[in-house]
Specification:
It is a single chain. The chain is mostly helical and 139 residues long. It is 58% helix and 6% strand. It contains seven helices and two strands; from the N terminus they run ααααββααα. A two-stranded antiparallel sheet has the order 1-2.
């Protein structure tokens, strides 16, 4: 029987995967890992949960997790350690600058702006919706 370490449980709980969002699960997972590393929430050298543990926790196919990890390994963000868990690459800094982290939001912001304009919503309407969702996610 395998027990999660506290660090693995914490990291596993950071991922919010939405199967019906229209975005492939492997992309959701890889994008979230990129953001968590960029923000410093998952620092260099941190061991990631095993493919099996993450798949079981989120009730997804292990190949989906494997695909996300392999993609991030090819980018140099993750390192494979023979016989040990994948880790965040050691050459990663403890969090990217604010501008670099903000840039990662650009595709979502562009999509949000387009949808808001098509719905004829004002910037204030969008900001209020964003603020409400932000507060909802804190609770």
């Amino acid at each position: 029987m395998h027990y999660f370490t506290n660090a693995h449980e914490r990291i596993t709980d950071l991922f919010i995967l939405k199967p019906h969002s229209g975005v492939p699960i492997y992309r959701q997972l890889s994008e979230q890992i990129r953001r968590l590393v960029a923000s410093g929430q998952i620092p260099a050298g941190t061991e990631l949960p095993s493919i099996r543990d993450l798949a079981v926790k989120h009730a997804i196919n292990p190949m989906t997790v494997s695909k996300a990890y392999a993609l991030l390994e090819a980018e140099g963000l993750l390192e494979r350690n023979r016989g040990k868990p994948m880790t965040v690459a050691a050459n990663r800094k403890a969090g990217a600058p604010l501008a670099a982290r903000s840039k990662q939001l650009e595709p979502q912001v562009e999509s949000l702006v387009l949808a808001a304009r098509q719905l004829e919503l004002s910037a204030d309407d969008v900001i209020e919706s964003l603020r409400a969702k932000w507060e909802e996610s804190d609770g």
